Amino acid sequence: MTIRRVGKGCGEKELFLTKAVLIIFWFTATFFSASTPIVLAQSSEASSCVTCHSDIWEEVKESIHGRQNISCHNCHGGDPTAKDKESAKGPNTGYIGIPDKKKIAETCGACHANVEVMNFYGVPTDQLARYKTSTHGKKLFLEANTKVAVCSDCHGYHDVLAITDPNSSVYPLNVPKTCNHCHGSEALMKPYGLPTDIFETYKKSVHGIALFEKKDISAATCVSCHGSHGAVPPGVKEISSACGKCHVNEKKYFLESMHAKPMAAGRFSECISCHGNHGVERASNDLYRTTCIKCHEKGSSEEKAGETIWQVFHQSGEKLKAAESSVKQASIEGIFVEEETGSLEEAKTNVIVMAPLQHSLSVERITELAAKFSEVADKITTQIHQKREALKWRKTALIPIWVFILAMAAALWVKYKRLKTERKKNQPNKTNREGEK
Prior knowledge:
Layout: H1 10-34, H2 36-45, H3 48-52, H4 54-60, H5 64-67, H6 72-76, H7 85-88, H8 101-112, H9 115-118, H10 127-133, H11 135-141, H12 151-155, H13 175-183, H14 186-189, H15 198-203, H16 206-213, H17 222-226, H18 239-244, H19 248-254, H20 260-264, H21 272-275, H22 287-290, H23 292-295, H24 301-332, H25 338-357, H26 363-436
Helix pairs in contact: 10-11, 24-25, 24-26, 25-26
C-alpha cells in the first residue's frame, strides 16, 4: 500500500484513514499469530477423544507432545470430529485403539523417522532404524517377543517429557531407575539368564556415586555404555569404544600396550578385566597387586613389572603429599611461597599425566615421567628448607640488635632518672635565691 502526498482538507482525512487501516491490519496479524496455539489447543480439547477421555488428556496436554498440539488421533487413529463413539472409532477412521508393542514402535517412528517432520526440532530421525538393530528391537521384530522394551516403556505413554526435563524418565539421573524397571525384575530376566542386581551394584560404583550423590549428569549411565535406542551388550572388542568415549587418553595408551593384541583377538577385555563393569570402583594403584596375578603367575616378569609401576606411583604419591604439606606449612609460618606454589602445580600436572600413561604399561615411560615429577618435588622441598633456614638466621641476627636497642633504652632511662634527680636537688636552691632577692 502506498501513501501519496496530500494537501489539507480532504487529503488529511485520507491520510488518517490510511493510517487507521495499517494499524488495524498490524493489530489483527499480531493477535491471530499470538493466539494460534490457543486456537489449536482449544480444537484439541473440543475433540470427541478429549470429551470422553478427559482424565488422560490432562496428562497429554502437559507432555511434550501435547504442547506441540499432537492429540489422541495422531497416535490412536479415529475421527476426533465425530460426535458419537461409533463414528469416532468407525472402520474408515484408522482407529487402532491400544497398539501392540510392534505397532508402538512403528507409530512413534512414523513421526520420529520422518526427516521433514523432525527437522524443525533438530531431533535425529534414525532412532527406529537403530532400535531395530538393538537386542530389544531384534527380539520384537524378528522373534515377535513382546516382553522386550519399546519406546513407551522408557519414555512413557501419555506423559512423555523432554529428555532435558528432570522429571523425564530418560533424564540422566533417572535412566538407571528406568532401565531397572525391567532389568531388576527376576520374572523378566530369568528366561535370559541375566542378573537382576545390576542397579544396586551400579549405585555403589564410581559412576553411580558421581550420578546419585554428586548429581553429576555427565557421569556414565546405562545408555552411555550400552547405547539407548540401539542398545546392545558391548563385546570384548567394543568395550574400548564404550569406555573410550569418556576415557580418551586411557584408551590411546592402552592401544600401545602389550594387552592390545590379546584384546583384538578377543582373549582379553580391555577395561573390565581390571576395573569391572557395572561396579567400577575408583581406580587405585593396589590393582597392580590384586589384578595382575589373576592372569599372570606370581613372580613372573609381568607381575614384577606391575610391582615396579606400583612402587613408582606409591613413591610419587608420598612425595606429592610431602611437597603439598611443606608448602602449606611454610605459608602458615609467613614464608613467601609463590614460586613453590607454581612449581607444585607443575608437579601435579606430571602426576595427572602419569595416570592415563600407566595404561601403556611402559615401565620406562612411567619411570621417566616420575623422575621429572620427583625433580620438581625435591626442588620445592629444598627451596622451602633454604627459605626456612634463611628466616631462622635473620631472626638470630635480630638478637644482638634487640640487645643493643634494649641497652640503649636502659641507658637513656638511667640518664633520664639522673637528670631528673639533679633537677630536684637544684630546685630548692633556686627557690631560696629568689626569696633573698
